[in-house]
Every structure is written in structure tokens, then in C-alpha cells.
Amino acid sequence: MKKLKVIFFVIFTVLFYSLISSQIDVAHAANKETSNLLKNGGFEETIESKEWLNSQGPADWSQWKASGDPELVVDNQISHSGKQSIKIQASSDSRASVEQDVMVISGKEYKLSDWVKTDKVTSNHGARLRLTFLGDKKVYEYSNEVTGTSDWKHIEKIVKVPEGYNTVRIQNFLEKGTGTVWFDDIKSVAK
């Protein structure tokens, strides 16, 4: 009788731990599918930086001003969610982005999404996401663009990482043009 209790206890313990382990694996897989690979995608954390208007820039993000004289600022007046967004404002033809490099897996698919608001954006390509796969030769991918004046629009792009690439530069981009664009809540998740 004592042996039977021990056997029952061992079987129960093994089954219990197997069940718990499988639940943890399922939760981990689900979390992996929804984990944002980008840091500070809502632009809520800031650091001191002379590159940015008001000497405050978003932590983990850098800026690139390719042409013109655009102003890039963390905006605490307008946001899609949270308390802040990124604003790029250009009164003359300008080209600029707010960007972050992310490690990716060659051949894997990723879904990128962003919220974009525009005010009088005139440009051939407007405001959009640009992905630059970094390697011996750069490979570019673009989301749909937003031009004119619009309230918050959700844009998405699903991309497959080209073979041989493991880093992508994700850019909240105002292509050569004028106007004001806000970006917020950018995400990149593995599919």
C-alpha cells in the first residue's frame, strides 16, 4: 500500500510538472510573438541631447537629417498614446528620420507597425517607415506613405529579412518635403 502511494505521488508529480512546463512554453511562445524588438517605441523615455530641439531626445533613438533644416523634437503635447510622440517639422524641403538599429534573424518575417499623424505634409513619398537592412549592400523596404493632413493612421509593413542580413535600421521617415509629422507607438515583432 505504501509503494502504491509512492508510485501515485511520483506519477502525479511528473504529470503536474509536465503540465506546468508546457504552459510556461506556450506563454513564452505567445510572449515572443508579441514582444516589441524596439526599445522605447512610445518615446516616453528621454535623455539629454543637444541634437534635439529643447535638448531632450528619445532614449535609444537617433536622428538623421539628410537635407534641409528640419526640426526634430519629443512632443509632449500631441501623442497617440502615453504622454509623448516624436515630431518632425519642416518649413522648407527637408529629409529626416528618427531611427534605431535592431538585430534580426536572416530569412525570418517581422511585422512593423507605427502610428502617424500629419499636418500639411507635401512630398512625393510623405511620412512612412523605411527599413534599411545593413550589410555589404543596403536593402530597402518601405511602408505606405501618409501625406496631407490626417489624424492618427496606423501603418504596417510585413517584411522577410533577406538572406545574409542580421541588422535592420528602422526609420520613422519624412521623405523630402514640407509639413509636420508625428510618430508614436512603433513596434517590430517576429512573426
Model description:
The protein is α+β, with helices and mostly antiparallel strands and 191 residues long. It folds into 2 domains: 1-34; 46-190, Galactose-binding domain-like (Jelly Rolls). 17% of the residues lie in helices and 52% in strands. It is built from 1 helix and 10 strands. It has one helix at 2-34; strands at 46-48, 56-58, 62-67, 71-75, 85-103, 109-123, 127-133, 139-142, 148-160, 167-190. Strands 3, 4, 5, 6, 7, 8, 9 and 10 form an 8-stranded antiparallel sheet that branches. A two-stranded antiparallel sheet has the order 1-2. The model is unreliable at 22-33 (pLDDT under 50).
Q: Can you identify the CATH superfamily of the largest domain? A: Galactose-binding domain-like
Question: Could you give a short account of the major beta sheet?
Answer: 8 strands, antiparallel
The helix-and-strand class reads alpha+beta
Report helical residue fraction: 10-25%
Q: CATH class of the largest domain, please? A: Mainly Beta
Please report the distance between the alpha carbons of the first and last residues: 52 Å
Reported CATH architecture of the largest domain = Sandwich
| DSSP strand count | 10
Query: Could you give the order of the helices and strands?
Result: HEEEEEEEEEE
Radius of gyration: 22 Å
Helical stretch tally: 1
Percent in strands: over 45%
- Number of domains as seen in the coordinates: 2
Mean pLDDT: 88
CATH topology of the largest domain: Jelly Rolls
